[in-house]
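Before anything else, study the sequence and fold tokens given here and see whether the fold suits the sequence. Record follows:
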Amino acid sequence: MTQRVEIVPSYGERRDALDQRWMDFLARVDMLPLLVPNNPAALPGLLKNFPVDGILLTGGGDLTTYGGNAPERDATEAALIRFAIEEGVPLIGVCRGMQAVQHFFGVRLEAVTGHVAAEQTVIVDGRPQSVNSYHRFGSMSTVPDLEVRALAQDGVIEAVRHRRHTIHGVMWHPERLSPFRTADIEMFASVFGSERE
């Protein structure tokens, strides 16, 4: 499970950070997270000594290609996507995590407006659903490897899945919804092969 980078100038620190609500959400899916530092050099040792059943790329911040300030996170997440492909490990990208997946497979993102809202309606697998939205970049098109699963009303892609690998992405934040959406819990359980309580 990846983390955002928080820059704290008063201490001269770059900190890895994670919304505590993720722990509550993952508990509902019966998952125990291993928090990954934003340090690509540490990944081989972690993945060798702590075998993982799935990879979660979380949200927070922009990719450096689009003005973000955490190249170490970009490198860590790209390495995790490669690992997921090479080892057949399922992966879900949330918000920035989905953008990392899109970027990895060659989708060009663009600035979008109206996508920072506590609630928006998206069409998921042909059905309208209410989710949240906290992103400034998105895409109106995809590449052959990625299938579109959800669209916003303005045509921005809100969920994708890879056609050959178990790689999924959603632009909304399941951990920020209260109560948690049953559809999100079921999706995580299905992708990661865990049982719902």
User: Anything to note?
Assistant: Residues 4-192 form a domain with the Rossmann fold fold (CATH 3.40.50.880).
